[in-house]
């Protein structure tokens, strides 16, 4: 069944605001949206599926730009393998960035400890 929905119903069913839907629509994340002569936009079940997928992708850490690069892949074929492979590639990049940040923070932590120890020695040397 390909039920048409107005933005309010779509928002309720997807658990997002109408403003979010308009934003995603402007970014092209929802695919084709039907606009009738009365000016109303009508959304399909596929728009709902796309919104639900966007929510999942956001929860696992993808940005809207990253989602934009992958969302259509999820709807090209039933297994969604292309989309999943692309998400793995994106998450691998996030992991690499995270590992680098952790290494940088670890180095910074060691520098802080070293500075604290140097200052403590200076204080100890000045204290009678």
From TrEMBL:
Domain of life of the source: Bacteria
SMART domains: HTH_MERR
Organism: Paenibacillus roseus
Annotated signal peptide: none
This protein's record includes keyword RNA-binding: no
Sequence ranges assigned to domain HTH merR-type in this UniProt record: 4-73
Key word DNA-binding present: yes
Pfam families (UniProt xref): MerR_1
Listed name of the protein: MerR family transcriptional regulator
Molecular function, one GO term: DNA-binding transcription factor activity
SUPFAM superfamilies with a match to the protein in the record: Putative DNA-binding domain
UniProt KW keywords: DNA-binding, Repressor, Transcription, Transcription regulation
Stored InterPro entries: DNA-bd_dom_put_sf, MerR-type_HTH_dom, MerR_fam
């Amino acid at each position: 069944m390909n039920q048409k929905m107005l933005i309010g119903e779509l928002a309720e069913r997807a658990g997002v605001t109408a403003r979010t839907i308009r934003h995603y629509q402007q970014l092209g994340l929802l695919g084709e949206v039907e606009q009738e002569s009365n000016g109303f936009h009508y959304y399909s079940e596929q728009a709902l599926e796309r919104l639900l997928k966007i929510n999942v992708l956001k929860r696992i850490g993808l940005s809207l730009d990253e989602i934009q690069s992958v969302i259509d892949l999820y709807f090209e074929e039933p297994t969604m393998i292309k989309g999943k492979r692309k998400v793995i590639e994106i998450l691998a990049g996030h992991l690499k960035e995270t590992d680098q940040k952790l290494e940088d923070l670890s180095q910074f932590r060691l520098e802080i400890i070293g500075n604290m120890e140097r200052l403590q020695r200076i204080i100890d040397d000045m204290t009678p």
